[in-house]
Every structure is written in structure tokens, then in C-alpha cells.
Amino acid sequence: MDLPSSLGQVAATAGDNEVLRKGTTMVTVTLSWLLIITILAAALALFDGIARMRGRRSNSILAIAELLFALLMLLSLFFAFPAPLGTLLFAIVLEVILLLILLIRGTGARGASTVTIIALILNSIVVLIALGWLTIPGLS
User: Fold this and answer.
1) Under 8 Å between Cβ of 26 and 12
2) What is the dihedral of CA 105, 108, 111, 114, to 10 degrees?
3) CA pair distance 127, 95, nearest whole angstrom
């Protein structure tokens, strides 16, 4: 099937030949291991922040910051932010917050620190690969 070359004309998707109208755009997200690791790191940090907000811990300011930057990191994967505000910046700030949370322990269950450590490890992988300091074949 020959498709017109201009973007404004009618195009068809490959899957079910659904016709797109003029002016609509198709957004595709390519799944990669790095994207999955980034989503997992931000989601675990978001979960950890919610758990810390519900608990009676002394570092609620860090929990609020963790919630904010984990949410911003998730949003930056799918929406465009202004130039300096990208996934890398949010990942670095989230890394610092997760380290501070581990160093400044509050009272609570041991399982909360396990989630924090897993989020910290996954976020460290994201930061190191984004900076180019770590190369894992097939990951990026």
C-alpha cells in the first residue's frame, strides 16, 4: 500500500489500517530496557514516598521532596519540559534525596528501607547510563 509522503495528508497505521485525520499526530514510545528501569526506579521512589508520608517519621520533608521528584521524573519520560529540566536532572536530585533518606533514618518498618535501596540502585543505573559512565550492551 503506497502512503502519501506529506504529514498533513491521510496516513494509515500498520496494525489495523486505521485512517488518521488531517491534523492528528501519532506518538509512539519505544520500549527499551533503560526506559523500563527508569519507570521502575521512579515508580518505586513514588511508592516509597507515599509510604513515608503515611508513616510517622521525622523526615517528612524528604518524603515530600521524594514524591515531587519521582512524579516529575515519571512525567518527564512522556512529556517535554523546558531544556534544563529533564529526566537526568530529576534522576540526580532523586538520587540525592534517596541517599539522604537512607542516611537519616526514621522509625519504621525494615521493608521501607528495602524499597528505598532498590529504588536507589535502579536510579543509580539510570544516572550512570545517562551520563555515559556505564555502558551495558543491549541496555541503552
Assistant:
1) no
2) -10
3) 8
On whether residue 10 sits in a domain, the answer given is: no
Report the C-alpha gap between 13 and 17 in whole angstroms. 5
The count of structural domains within the chain is 1
Residue 33 has pLDDT above 70, yes or no: yes
On the question of pLDDT at 10 being above 50, the answer is no
CA 116 to chain centre: 15
> Which three cell numbers mark 120?
536507589
Count of CB atoms within 10 A of residue 102's CB? Answer: 12
Residue 104 lies in a domain: yes
Report whether pLDDT(24) > 80. Answer: no
Cβ contact 47:112 at 8 Å: no
